[in-house]
Amino acid sequence: MPQPYDPAAFPSVAVTVDLVVLTVRAGRLAVLLVERGEAPHRGRLALPGGFLRPDEDLPAAAARELAEETGLPHDCVHLEQLATYGTPGRDPRMRVVTICYLALAPDLPSPVAGTDAASASFVPVDDALAAALAFDHDRLLRDGLERARAKLEYTPLAAAFCPEEFTVAELRRVYEAVWGTPLDPRNFHRKVTGADGFLEPTGHSTTRDGGRPAQLYRRGPARTLHPSMPRSTGDPHPG
Amino acid sequence: MPQPYDPAAFPSVAVTVDLVVLTVRAGRLAVLLVERGEAPHRGRLALPGGFLRPDEDLPAAAARELAEETGLPHDCVHLEQLATYGTPGRDPRMRVVTICYLALAPDLPSPVAGTDAASASFVPVDDALAAALAFDHDRLLRDGLERARAKLEYTPLAAAFCPEEFTVAELRRVYEAVWGTPLDPRNFHRKVTGADGFLEPTGHSTTRDGGRPAQLYRRGPARTLHPSMPRSTGDPHPG
DNA sequence: TCCTCTTTCGTCGAGATGACGATAAGCAGG
DNA sequence: CCTGCTTATCGTCATCTCGACGAAAGAGGA
Q1: Does residue A168 lie within any of the structural domains?
Q2: Which of A185, A199, B9, B216 could crosslink B165 through cysteines, CB 3.0-4.6 Å?
Q3: Residues 179..208 of A with a Cβ closer than 8 Å to B: which?
Q4: Hey, are the CB atoms on B13 and A58 less than 8 Å from each other?
Q5: Do B12 and B91 reside in the same domain of the chain?
Q6: Of A147-161, B49-63, B109-123, which range is least confident?
Q7: How far does A88 lie from chain B, in Å, by closest CA?
Q8: Which domain holds residue A213?
């Protein structure tokens, strides 16, 4: 903590808040990107974000940026702090410390045209990683992906990618998109319906997936998964 | 990311790097604290930390603070970013954004007298939480504890609390101190010796624990634990 | 009606785990 | 040397979970 204190003793540091906003669209994991209109990295794709305001809390800044870029109702979006990046030179203009937030959102039907939403669009993560992003945003994105993949294992957070009511198959497709591996529908069904507090039946059902009508569920109250969601398929055993 | 750019457009923000340094001493989990010599919170206990320097990377700043406060050889200390705190008013003097790092260290034999090490000392976490810390350091400490407890479950990081060579019982006492729950020595032994890459036998043995001589191990190359270290004792089943 | 599709329920063997018994191998004291 | 104490290490067993897969249920379409 600041012991010696002198307003002139510390350097000028700009603080920004950036976002890794993930969603699952057409069975693929996608990230929200904006095209930079100014130097440096003009024309390159970048994560959305902006300066922290004078009297703004960190989560509030993240929520504000999220609303500006997506117009999403922020009661259906999961938002958590990811990490902070401050390597000198990561922004050629000046010393910038960036607090990165991770957001998981359901596939929004209309790309709501907010203030800055015009230039923002969801890009499949594979494409985003192939096309080098501006600044060190490749790294932020990779860190966000790693966090999201890990969290699906031991939290019921996959439901954050789903609409209010969803089927077990829709939830499974979220896992398959984020992890990039196919899962057995039968074992998956047994697992999630057996997990305490993961799913709450709504009583409704739907045939939007084509075959036999599926039960509709909403998110349960659980915050963690015990035991965790097994990720491997085909890997025999670690022990 | 900074789109509009104007050096005068962002407010003056001080960036500090604070540390939650944990160790296990006398079977209890302890945290490194310093006594504040200046206002605000003069005389209160606080986490060690300081200002980020102009051309210093974040992990480098954390490592520097750690060396200043403990004098620990920093090749035996695990250091990772914990979270960033920037709520307006958390420091009454000015806007401060603090990047907090978590460090796990073995019990150092001599409290090496470094530059600032004089005032720094390890305090059992229970005592630290009972005595309110300066600023919002209670929260940083709680977050650090939560992270540490979680990481022991799915990583071999408990060995970071142990010296170069250690016995299974010493490792078990680390888990018991961090989690605050007793573990069955026989099941624990089976688990850690069976986990791939967790422990590497040295061939030596010791009787420093009193009874039958115990094998000495060093840390293995594994970075994660599959399956994870079971935490519950007494809880029958979650399903 | 028959086929196809997806959901949902069962079965089986292979680990993993919790509880706990049994043995091994040191030391202290008589 | 023998007895008792300590702790380390090995086994056993019932229960739970998981992966692989079979089979029935319930809708729509040819």
Answers
A1: yes
A2: B216
A3: 194-196
A4: no
A5: yes
A6: B109-123
A7: 6
A8: 155-234
Among A89, A121, A152, residue at a domain's last position: A152
A49-80: pLDDT as tens digits:
999 999 999 999 999 999 988 887 778 899 99
Residue-level pLDDT at B236:
32
Query: Which nucleotide shows the minimum CA-to-C1' distance to residue A236?
Result: D19
**Residue A105 is assigned to a structural domain of this protein:** yes
The residues near B42 (Cβ < 8 Å, ≥ 6 apart) are B36
**B86 Cβ nearer than 7 Å to chain C strand:** no
Which residue in chain B is spatially nearest to A229 when comparing CA positions?
Answer: B227
Question: Is B1 an 8 Å CB contact of chain A?
Answer: yes
Determine what percent of chain B is predicted with pLDDT higher than 90: 77
Q: Does B215 touch chain A (CB under 8 A)?
A: no
| pLDDT tens digits, one per residue of A146-195 | 999 999 999 999 999 999 999 999 999 999 999 999 999 999 999 999 99
* Cα–Cα distance, B175 to B34 (Å, whole number): 26
Nearest to B106 by CA among B25, B201, B220, B172: B25
Do residue A56 and residue A110 come from a single domain? yes
Q: Are B141 and B20 in contact (CB under 8 A)?
A: yes
A115 touches chain B (CB under 8 A): no
Say whether the peptide bond before residue A40 is cis (omega within 30 degrees of 0).
yes
**Which chain C positions come under 7 Å from a protein C-beta?**
4-10, 14-22, 24-27
